[in-house]
Amino acid sequence: MSVLEEIQAFLPCPTPDQWVEVAIKPENQDLLLIDHANCEKKAASTALNLIYRYIDNFELLNKMSRLAREEMRHFEQVIAIMKQRGIEYSNISAARYAAGLKSKVRTHEPAKLVDTLIVGAFIEARSCERFAKLAPHLDPELQKFYLSLLTSEGRHYRDYLNLARKAGGAEEVEKRIAVFREQEQQLVEAPDSEFRFHSGPME
Question: Is the whole model's pTM more than 0.85, yes or no?
Answer without folding.
Answer: yes
